[in-house]
């Protein structure tokens, strides 16, 4: 049975976990507050679901979650990193703790968990020892939104970390990212504001969860791609200007 560690399981991560579980995987969840997601999956899939509660802002929590989940599942084949705060931090009032609040779970935890996973994945007997997928954002680097400085600083570091890790972990472990466009409405957005975001995509529709799951599962099978950041964003990155 294949084994995946997934962080950030509240919404999109939950859908990915559910799909992998329904295909027979063992899944180890890392949650900070979403214990009900673990319970929900445990009720449906029983002892193929494992979980660690942790704050990925903390280096030692990131290490502990990987080590414990690997021990419980008997190893790890895949790591899918979705954990990410998404809070407005206007430049005039941005504080050190805002930067840390975003940077540590998004970028630092990714690096720490990859570091911990390397020796674990290298024990696998398969040709390709492991696959790692990070969830980025279509607007990172070249077209950031205004007022999200802490978030974009962290996502920029995550996109870079994907390339760094692809090099560090080759040839045995593949590392790629999905840069998502508007998929699931952030809880603090009004319907109107969300519709505006969607209308800015050339395809005039939100990214479908079905596509997110399919692309994730493709990256869990791919043999000859690493260091890639794939835009899954209804074409948003070709539409130009952001506000
Ligand atoms: N939704 C979209 O349309 C969209 C668009 C572009 C990019 N993305 C990216 O896609 C991914 C998933 O998005 P989503 O909307 O499903 O996310 P979400 O519902 O906002 O959930 C964020 C997740 O991050 C976890 N998290 C935050 N801080 C953490 C910390 N310090 N330690 C551990 N976990 C932490 C939360 O864990 P708990 O729930 O356990 O607290 C939660 O599961 C994210 O990386 C996001 O940036 C999403």
The named CATH superfamily: NAD(P)-binding Rossmann-like Domain
Low-confidence stretches: none
Small-molecule components bound = NADP nicotinamide-adenine-dinucleotide phosphate
Indicate the percent of residues in helices. 40-55%
The number of helical segments is 7
Which shape, going by the Cα principal axes? globular
Which CATH first-tier class would you pick? Alpha Beta
**CATH arch. level architecture:** 3-Layer(aba) Sandwich
Number of domains: 1
Average of per-residue pLDDT values: 97
Based on DSSP secondary structure assignment, what is the total number of beta strands?
7
Counting helices, strands and paired strands, the structural category is alpha/beta
Distance between the termini: 46 Å
The name CATH uses for the topology is: Rossmann fold
Strand order across the biggest sheet? 3-2-1-4-5-6-7
Radius of gyration: 17 Å
Question: Which series of helices and strands comes N to C?
Answer: EHEHEHEHEHEHHE
* Portion in beta strands: 15-25%
Taking the sheet with the most strands, its summary is: 7 strands, parallel
Structural notes for this entry:
The chain is of the alpha/beta class. It has a single domain, classed as Rossmann fold (3-Layer(aba) Sandwich), CATH 3.40.50.720. The protein is about 45% helix and about 15% strand. The chain contains seven helices and seven strands. It has helices at about 10-20, 35-45, 60-75, 95-120, 150-170, 190-200, 210-220, and strands at about 5, 25-30, 50-55, 80, 130-135, 175-180, 230. Strands 3-2-1-4-5-6-7 form a seven-stranded parallel β-sheet, sandwiched between helices. β5 (about 130-135), α5 and β6 form a beta-alpha-beta unit. α1 (about 10-20) packs across α7. The longest helix has 27 residues, at about 95-120. The protein is globular and about 45 Å long. The termini are far apart. The mean pLDDT is about 95. The structure holds NADP nicotinamide-adenine-dinucleotide phosphate (NAP). The site of NADP nicotinamide-adenine-dinucleotide phosphate (NAP) has 26 residues, from α1 and β5.
